[in-house]
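Dear colleague,

Thank you for sharing your sequence with our group. We've completed the structure prediction you requested, and as agreed, I am returning the results in plain text so they can be pasted directly into your records. Please verify that the sequence below matches your submission; if there's any discrepancy, let me know and we will rerun it promptly.
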Amino acid sequence: MAAFDQAFRVVIGHEGGFTANPADPGNWTGGASGRGECRGTKFGISARAYPDLDIADLTLDQAQAIYRRDYWDKLDADSLPPPLALLAFDAAVNNGLGRARQWLALARSQQTGAAICAEFLAQRFAFMAALPTWHSFGLGWARRLCRLPYESMTMTEDA
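Please find the predicted structure tokens below.
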């Protein structure tokens, strides 16, 4: 199975179905709670990132195409070792492409081998724990971040 397909299965398992929690800034087309229209998030595709998309009616195939085009390919994830590709891909979907690239560059500049993955996750955890929404969503985010190292061990080269 291709690395993208493996990573997509992991990330989509974290993201799940449709939600329209008004406390989540990502659910709003204006990018902040109470700003714009609360159109929700589905499969990790948010109204903030895609304000013109019909989020509620988004299909899994559409989400997969968006993930490939807007996250995996823009990270050049096929050039990364599969475990690191998963970590960067998950971060790009959940925290934004720019932050994922920043953490990837920082981790690669200071570390080698498995330490790259550890540094990447440490940078991501520190960022997320400082978010004002950590109180509401932090336990779920922490679970996600703690599962990722184990999930990354299942990643293999293209078969």
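Summary note from our side: The mean pLDDT is 92.

Kind regards,
the structure core
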